[in-house]
Amino acid sequence: MTDTITTDRRAERRDTPERRTHPRDVFVEFQGVHKSYGVKDVLRGVDLKVYRGEVLVILGGSGSGKSVTLRHILGLEAPDEGRVLIEEEDITDLPEEELYRVRKKFGMLFQSGALFDSMTVFENIAFPLREHTDMSDEEVGRAVVEKLELVDLPGTEHLMPVDLSGGMRKRVGLARSIVLNPKMILYDEPTTGLDPITAQKINELIIDLQSKLNVTSIVVTHDIQSAFSVGDRIAFLNQGVFEWTGTMEAARDTDHPQLREFLKSSAVVAAQPTRQ
Question: What is residue 266's predicted lDDT score, i.e. its pLDDT?
């Protein structure tokens, strides 16, 4: 039942007037991006487009370059060759002060939640507002309460990270990542370390925030069930390039051997009826 509800919500999110009117508006674009560390080639001519309003799931093996891809989007890494564009702006050679302006377009949910253990939930979420805005204490308080309600954690402002379950830590981290109202949210393994029920709640939260906040999202995950719960498209990173991109429906029928192995690991492909 939960999977059906999640699928229905994802379908509703796709079928909106705005998305029908601007179906191919590119938010992030990689053009022939290469990145090496010493003798190790991590990205080998990556081309990728992320469309406004979609949830793009990046799949790939350990060490395939998924995190390096996210760092390039944030301007934390510069390509050895190629270009990275954010909303049609080439950020490849921007100085640090200009990259700071670009980074404000993004919210990032780290795998661990990355909370400050010495701060309360309120202080953790308020931290970006106090660092990067001139909001009054009253305005900060309202923003924190609003974001906690969005992640279904009202009334938890006084708690310390040690008092939180793994799922709650992820949700607090998510509240902090959206407190500056970003245009795009980057999720790094959002369901890692969570039990299946809690993981599904995080999946549903990603979908709800996608529609409520009208954002674009990239989800890096090894959780294939999560990928199919939240994603509009898959980009499969293998041997330094995105070898396959397409919709979730097309992925189920793919004949790409490595991608099929990923999907078979959770029976996403194997459970499908044989095509006639």
Answer: 60
